[in-house]
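Many introductory courses stop at the sequence. We go one step further.
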Amino acid sequence: MSAMERSRHSLQTKTFILLARTGILIGIVMLVVGLSLYTMTLSRQYIKHGSYISKSAALGATQTADAAELCNKVMEIYNGLSEEERALVGTEEYRQLFESCYIDDYEKLMNILPAYATDEVSYIYVAMYDEENCRMVYVVDPSEGDGVLYPGEWEPVEESGMRHFLDWNGYDMLYEIDHTDKYGWLCTAGTPIFDNTGSLAGFVLVDISVANIWSGMRMYATQITLSLIAVVLLLILISSRRLKKTVVDPINNIAACAENYVDDKKNGIHNSEHFSKLNIRTGDEIENLSLTMADMEKEMTDYIDNIASITAEKERISTELSVATRIQAAMLPNIFPAFPDRNEFDIYASMDPAKEVGGDFYDFFLTDKDHLCLVMADVSGKGVPAALFMMASKIMIANYAKMGKSPAEILAITNEAICRNNREEMFVTVWVGIYEISTGKLVASSAGHEYPILKHGDKFEVYKDRHGMVIGYEPGMKYTDYEITLNPGDKIFLYTDGVTEATDGGENLYGMDRLVEALNNTPDADPEQILKSVRDSVDEFVNEAEQFDDITMLCFERCNLGQS
């Protein structure tokens, strides 16, 4: 083979090209993901900051002055004007039409609102919308300079943004991110002001410029691009050198030995130490290749030693998997009381695995100070595959819950993520609930899981919720949320089929009726005692029969005021 042919087929050249292409692709993906995360994070910060300031300013405005009355007065005058009079906006003649609005409350608000402005705030003002003409009518604008807008002055707005504020549901943060020719890109957060009759009088609005998001993105993109170029070039250089040392040179040496071996055979030279003298120690397939070639010149003992090495490696892997399984099981929350500083609720859970490692899991965690996420799930199958599938499902559900998704959305997104790469065709039944601590409202959704059992009064009863398809069966599945309001003293009991399908020596199932009966033996006990009572009942029924499935339970109670 000529030098040109060797160069054309060189592994080093091919690897260099592959690394370059891979580095560019990874760099593009990292840049897109980084820019997306950067934009989302900064936008959320602006929205939260603006909402907090608008709420604080609205509270101060309504406590210090009668902001609602001033809003109604301005809108009363504005609504009484003709379009010809409104067209005079910005003139002294138009401002005199609202002369009666320059009252004590106006002066108070002009002094109060600037106190809530921070360095990030571009504008803070009070305004109301003219729904018919898609206009924003200003009530109080403490801006400085020529840009001050006086009571009754108006500006056109987009209907979609206006409707977003007027049709607010009363729960989510009230904001809009929009671009105008006059103000550029702004994040507008607002808090409504209601009068004594409960009618909407106006809004306290806060504008924060988001122009620095774009400049930050450009700077971020430049820094990331330059960094990636440097890293990719460095990796290519290091990898190429290492490739030459650990792959190219050893393969060339093996090829040379093969040529010498053939030449010796042709010449009748009996030399049995061609490959054994190579002494290649790369620790990978190249070394294995050299050893395989040397096997033609070695005794059978070398082969036996190799088998022993492989056996030891398998035992090491088996030991590591066993340790990993125990670590995975320990990741379930198992320290009680779980929230010692919260006395609004009590919770207790347990998971008793069968002899083989199963896939049952429960989880509970605070998504914020007022919301607690509850999860109960059961993965199909047993053993290490089920344990790994369980861990992946648990992490996905927790991540999506902490993003503020509803239970139905959590199940739908998790299902899509799992279905994308579910070659083993495993599935998991899941029940997810988001409990609002301050109100006792529980929003839940089920993906083919067992019915929850609810104590809503004196005794426990099965709550037959609507089931969706199990997670991992088919993409595109939709799930439905439902609501339950828990009163003080109410409890909800969650479990997997390992409880109801516990089997005695006669292959009889424990069943739902026995479970409800066991719960109602001590309906007023705390969650820990309730789980102990149920487990005692199951053990008594099963007697000495072997446990074939995981037994997983969780009990949640909304406590009476002062009860821990």
